[in-house]
Amino acid sequence: MQQMFKKINDRDDLNNIPLPFATILPDLVLSNISLRTDSEKWDTLRFEVEANNQRIRIKEFFMDWFYPSFPKSLLKTFSLPYEPLSIRSITVNGITYPVFFGMDYSGAIAASTWISGTTLEIRSMPDSGQNFIDMTMNILSQLQIGKFPERKDFISRSYYAGKKRKYSWFEEERIGRMSWGSSENSLCGNFFKKFNCISSGTFNGIHKIKVFTSEDMRGEIWIDLFKIVASLKNGFYHFDEDNMGILQEHHGKDQFRIFSVSNFGPWLLRKVYPDIIATVGASSGIQIDDIVSLIEDIEINRDQVITL
């Protein structure tokens, strides 16, 4: 199956196209709008925006192959950037999200952010000039969130979960090789109660990922479990103590190590239980007090959550 990019004539046309992510568009004139659907890659919206006679390109999609809201386009490994990142922040509907700036996989000056479940990858154009950060932040300050997907659970939105796809990278295979199912959230806890749906993927009784999605799509949590004695390629991510890259370590809690990429997330937590390595990914827009509540909720519900 070939990748098909369909030209979209007007931003309003997007309202009639079902997408697995919320469209997030600046209140500016959009040009060169195109949409990729029904292809060998995930659904993607692309468009260009001009401000002060300078242009940037924005690409939007739902990232389902890695912990939520990591700036993957700016990273050469799960924690090492192509070049050092600089960070700004924006507030949308009362939630503050980080915006990461650096160099992307193509060598372009670029940015990445995550808002209400949608990943935005922003790239400078040849005529972008020298003020890419300022121009990008100005454009992002004018964002408007469009319609949300009809179904918000991870499986419905995911390109790989529960579908037979071709894999280009091991991150995609980790999701695609699992068997998936969804259920309503019945767990106890102050933080867990914000998430109404749980999607669970399992592989051969040795690897499980539980994805918690909120109805308002302001946050997403992954709990990634791997059986310690198992042998499986790419079963879990190794943390290199000498080369943590973008990860900043915080004071731990309940034997969880706590890492963040910024003060506004995203977050990674790691704890080794007697027979399970647990890695927790929490999206941008979540702050340290929420992470403490999340850890407490995991321990309260340990028998239901930390199990293969």
Please give a quick description of this structure.
By secondary structure, this protein is mainly β.
Shape: globular
Low-confidence stretches: none
Q: How many helices does DSSP assign?
A: 5
Tell me about the largest β-sheet: 8 strands, antiparallel
Helix content, binned percent: 10-25%
Rg over C-alpha atoms, rounded to the nearest angstrom: 19 Å
What is the straight-line distance between the termini? Answer: 36 Å
Please write the string of helix (H) and strand (E) elements. EEEEEEEEEHEHHEEEEEEEEHH
Q: Mean pLDDT, as a whole number?
A: 92
Strand percent estimate: 35-45%
- Describe the strand arrangement of the main beta sheet, using strand numbers: 1-3-4-5-9-8-7-6
The total count of strands amounts to: 18
SS class: mainly beta
